[in-house]
Every structure is written in structure tokens, then in C-alpha cells.
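anyone seen this seq b4? input:
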Amino acid sequence: MLSVNAETEIEEQIKKSRFLGFITPCQTESDAKSYLENLQKQHQAANHIVFAYKIKTEKGLVCRFYDDGEPSGTAGKPVFNYIEGNELINVLIVVVRYFGGIKLGAGGLTRAYGNTAKKVIEAADISEHIQYAQIKFTLDYSQFQMFEYQLEKHAGAMIDKQFSGQIVCLVKIPEVAAEKFLALFPGEKV
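predicted toks r here
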């Protein structure tokens, strides 16, 4: 699986219609909905705002696509097919269309939305998707320096830390390294 690292935007003209393609990373459906709301405010004059997303949640994969008034299956589905074909995860692709006066027909719409999705994917910064585990640790102060060293060595990151009698910290670490790290420092997956 692959992930998008940053938001990317492209624009193209197809038979006088203006197509804007957007791709952005999303960790939750709420992220996707928030991004869509912002785009709808920015592009109120657009004729269609088509989208597709695929997000991995604790309950499994959430996949959605939407044609926004275009003939069924000619807009959102072709965009989603490019997400699937490129093995993307935790991603939202939006195609905004400003109608230029020339009808494209079902085949033309499918090609236009699909090609816009393809081009925005090609323009995006994409890397291997890493699944992270969140683990909570309770440490003595004497362990903390070695803990931070090992955390960095295992490509983990500190999410939160609280200092009191002991140090309580929440970290994220690649799933593939989690068991090895837990062997070094006892913790609890959350």
C-alpha cells in the first residue's frame, strides 16, 4: 500500500470545461468531510465536485465515491478506480468541474474524471504506507534516555509524555517493529 504525503493540485482544460484535481492524505472520514467542506466553499460556482476516498480505520476499510450530479458511474467511480489501481490508502481525491458548454458524453466524462485523477496521483508525493501501533509506557527516569534512543532507532515517535513520579508516555511505532520494541520496554498497546 502507498500513502500520499502532502496535498497536491492540478488543473486541465477538456473541451472548454475546467477540471481541478486535488489529492490529500486523510486519516479519518472526518478529515475527508472537512476537506470537502472547505473545497465546496472555495468552489461554490463549480458545476460538480466529485470525490473518492479510501481510509483504513480500526473497523476496516472505508471506501466512498460520489458523482455529484454527473451520470451514475461516470465520475466518482473512475476516480476511485485510480485509487485502487495505484494501491493508495488513507487518501481523498477530489475533481472539481467548471462546465465549459460542451457535453462530453458518458465515455468522455469517464475519461476526463479518470485522467484528472491519474494526473493528480502522478503529481503527488507518494511513499510506502506504514501502519503504526500506539503503545503506552510507564518508565523510570533512569530508563528514559535509552528509551528515546531506541524509539528513534525503531522509527517511532513520541505522541505524549507526562512527568511525575515516573514518566508515562504514548508513542507510535511501525507495526512491524512493535513486538521487538515491546521486548525491550514493557508497554501496553492502545
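The two ends are 23 Å apart (CA to CA). The mean pLDDT is 93. kinda curious what u guys think
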